[in-house]
Structures are given as structure tokens and as C-alpha cells.
Design brief:
Blueprint lengths: L5 H17 L6 E5 L2 E5 L4 H13 L6 E5 L22
Length: 90
């Protein structure tokens, strides 16, 4: 994974802040790759259009928004393994 540029880091934080403040999302997962912003969460089409309008209004219209549904995410990637206890729990 390449190092994230300062501009991508700013946009990621900017979009996350808008989602928290205006759309009341608790902890939005935002990923920026080039000019593509991917939001993982429950964002409907009208909210996506509102967010795009906010970005356009503030000079970030060159970014394209993509919404990834939460059900498509893998919460626990890889094999889950419970390690044995090292000491007697009593």
C-alpha cells in the first residue's frame, strides 16, 4: 500500500467530519484513492447527492463518491483463533 498523500488525508478527514456532523454517522469509514472516495456505511442515494453537492460547493467536485454497503464488509478477516490461556484462571 502506497503512502497516503497529504491531500488524500485531508479529504478523508473532511468527508468523515461532514458525515459525522451533518449526517449523524457515528464513526464513518472513509477511504480515498486518487480521485475516488469510498464510504462504507448506510448512505442512501439522496444523502450521497447532498454530500457530492457539499464537495462541489467547496471546490472538491473532482472527487467521485462510491458507497460500499456494510454487509459487504468482512468484519473479522482471516481465520479466527482463540489462543489457550497461559495461566490457571483460578
Amino acid at each position: 500500500m502506497a503512502a497516503e498523500s497529504a491531500d488524500e488525508s485531508f479529504i478523508r478527514g473532511y468527508v468523515a467530519a461532514i458525515l459525522q456532523q451533518q449526517f449523524k454517522m457515528a464513526a464513518p469509514a472513509v477511504r480515498v484513492e486518487g480521485r475516488l472516495i469510498t464510504i462504507a456505511g448506510d448512505v442512501n442515494d439522496s444523502d450521497r447527492k447532498k454530500l457530492q453537492a457539499i464537495l462541489d460547493e467547496h471546490g472538491y467536485g473532482q472527487y467521485r463518491l462510491v458507497v460500499e454497503e456494510i454487509s459487504a464488509l468482512e468484519w473479522f478477516p482471516g481465520p479466527s483463533e482463540i489462543l489457550p490461556l497461559l495461566a490457571d484462571p483460578r
